[in-house]
Design a protein that fits this description.
28% helix, alpha+beta, Aminopeptidase, single chain
Length: 156
């Protein structure tokens, strides 16, 4: 007989200014082109929905979303590589979509790199559909990379 050990997800809490050094460290560990400190500060300043997973020694993942005019835009979903493949990205997206619905959003939007196969699969598994392409949207090692634009109806 074998037992499946389930480790509970770390708690989610609102991001604070004092988290930003750890948030930047997570970004740098996870992405070749991480967001800057100034971008995160601006997101907090303008009141975007910003949450972190609180790990044993500080934030180990984060999610940022804007909500306005009946839609939400998932701007950044990031989990430290040491914590990936545990469902935390999916839980963050679902949590943010619940927040968006409570704030009146009817549709969710996001962009994903074609090279981010795991991210693309995650989003399509939870109901996002391709609605377009943004040419040259992301910085890349050799110039720019397109973004696949995805949307999900939040009214169903």
């Amino acid at each position: 007989m074998s037992a499946v050990v389930s480790i509970p997800a770390p708690p989610l809490r609102p991001m604070r200014e004092e988290d930003l050094a750890a948030v930047i460290a997570v970004e740098q560990a996870a992405y070749p082109f991480p967001w800057t400190l100034a971008i995160f500060r601006d997101c907090l300043r303008v009141g975007y929905v910003c949450y972190v997973y609180e790990g044993p020694t500080g934030p180990i993942g984060h999610g940022i979303m804007s909500v306005a005019a009946g839609e939400c835009h998932l701007l950044n979903i990031c989990v430290h590589p040491d914590w990936q493949r545990r469902g935390l990205g999916r839980q963050m997206v679902e949590f943010l979509l619940d927040v968006a619905k409570r704030q009146g959003a009817k549709v969710a939007l996001l962009e994903v790199r074609p090279s981010n196969v795991a991210g693309y699969k995650l989003y399509t598994r939870i109901g996002f559909d391709e609605i377009g392409l943004r040419k040259g949207y992301y910085p890349a090692a050799k110039g720019r990379e397109d973004a696949i634009l995805l949307a999900r109806d939040l009214t169903v």
